[in-house]
């Protein structure tokens, strides 16, 4: 596999050389979480008999907090006026779990707690769409495959906002599909973890299956023993790579469960990540092993790092770079830049020669470039447009 000229120019520092600094800075105010009360479950038991399955436990269980300050970088609508917010609050105050009027009739629906993270819309676009600022069911699933995708979205939803009128008896089958293969043909061994966490603003987590060298969990899904057992069957987790400060969610629980080594850049260490095992210093790149390079891509935050998985030309970018469906092209989502737009553009420029074809972000949509020329052209276009 060819190595990018950017990497060839840099000095490769083995991870063993990084220090375990205890530097801790204030949590990001922009993404500060506001915990709210737990939501009532519509169904307390699905009647599987083996255990008491609450709606919450089926979704991954554990502590759930609601309504953080997250804003989907793709949000199109202006913020609501104060009077509109008050009116909505009054009308939904006691029934945030009620079915939104925008849903079509039928079993599946989205309630008012949706944080508009976009996950269900890319997981099951035939069922969910964006209507009046949140997701809604625009068409009920028509086929077994569509139903499976709708249930997968229900399980992945970070706020348990997707629900059904009747208990889904096939929910366990849907649970057993995670982690989800992304594209077995061009991306074998790379999975979508599912179970998005509201504590990472609904960001996507990935699982890279590498029986020989050790599996990697990229950013943190919501911790659930259901997913942990599935991952355990696939060999557990050796490394947990955290792209940046925003998408760390339940990292401590995953580390406790698998005894994995967590990796984050020291510039993105916060109070909740001060105990992470490995902290990257400087500007890298760093090498995990011959298959994996870590590339410093500052801009969205100072310590953003992308993971380059060379065997299948996949680049995991966190919130540095993604495909935007609204913009119909690549985007750096300037509206959610917490550090430096100019540095983020420089970091995109740095990726132009890197030999990747898959772009796998935390927020925004994934993208598969047709060719190296296509990647170069699209990245160059983005740099020109944003500069
Ligand atoms: S996954 Fe949940 S929170 Fe995200 S857009 Fe869909 S319903 Fe809303
Ligand atoms: Zn972020």
From TrEMBL:
Q: Which InterPro entries match?
A: Metallo-B-lactamas, RibonucZ/Hydroxyglut_hydro
SUPFAM superfamilies from the entry? 4Fe-4S ferredoxins, Metallo-hydrolase/oxidoreductase
This protein is called Metallo-beta-lactamase family protein
In residue numbers, the region (Disordered) covers: 64-83
Can you name the source organism? Answer: Klebsormidium nitens
Task: Give the taxonomic lineage as stored in the record.
Answer: Eukaryota, Viridiplantae, Streptophyta, Klebsormidiophyceae, Klebsormidiales
Q: Which Pfam families match?
A: Fer4_13, Lactamase_B
Q: What are the Metallo-beta-lactamase domain coordinates in residue numbering?
A: 202-363
Q: Which residues cross the membrane?
A: none
């Amino acid at each position: 596999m060819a190595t990018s000229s950017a990497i060839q120019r840099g000095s490769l520092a083995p991870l063993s050389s990084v220090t375990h600094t205890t530097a801790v800075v204030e949590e990001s105010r922009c993404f500060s979480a506001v915990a709210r009360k737990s939501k009532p479950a519509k169904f307390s038991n699905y009647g599987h008999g083996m255990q008491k399955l609450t709606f919450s436990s089926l979704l991954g269980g554990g502590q759930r907090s609601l309504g953080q300050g997250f804003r989907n970088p793709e949000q199109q609508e202006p913020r609501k006026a104060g009077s509109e917010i008050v009116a909505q609050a009054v009308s939904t105050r006691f029934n945030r779990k009620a079915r939104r009027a925008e849903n079509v009739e039928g079993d599946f629906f989205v309630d008012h707690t949706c944080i508009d993270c976009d996950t269900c819309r890319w997981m099951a676009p035939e069922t969910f769409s964006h209507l009046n600022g949140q997701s809604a069911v625009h068409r009920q699933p028509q086929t077994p495959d569509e139903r499976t995708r709708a249930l997968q979205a229900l399980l992945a939803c970070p706020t348990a906002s997707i629900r059904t009128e009747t208990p889904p008896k096939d929910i366990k089958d849907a649970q057993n599909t995670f982690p989800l293969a992304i594209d077995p043909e061009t991306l074998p061994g790379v999975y979508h973890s599912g179970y998005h966490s509201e504590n990472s603003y609904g960001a996507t987590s990935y699982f890279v299956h590498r029986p020989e060298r050790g599996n990697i969990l990229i950013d943190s899904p919501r911790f659930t023993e259901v997913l942990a057992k599935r991952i355990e069957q696939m060999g557990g987790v050796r490394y947990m790579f955290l792209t940046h400060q925003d998408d760390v969610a339940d990292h401590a629980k995953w580390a406790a469960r698998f005894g994995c080594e967590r990796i984050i850049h020291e510039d993105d260490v916060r109070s909740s990540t001060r105990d992470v095992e490995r902290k990257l210093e400087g500007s890298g790149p760093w090498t995990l092993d011959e298959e994996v390079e870590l590339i410093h891509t500052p801009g969205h935050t100072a310590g953003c790092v992308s993971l380059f998985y060379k065997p299948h030309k996949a680049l995991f970018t966190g919130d540095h770079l993604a495909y935007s469906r609204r913009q119909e092209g690549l985007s750096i989502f300037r509206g959610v830049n917490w550090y430096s737009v100019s540095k983020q553009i420089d970091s995109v420029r740095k990726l132009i020669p890197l030999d990747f074809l898959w772009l796998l972000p935390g927020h925004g949509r994934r993208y598969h470039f047709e060719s190296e020329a296509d990647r170069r052209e699209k990245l160059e276009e983005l740099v020109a447009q944003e500069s």
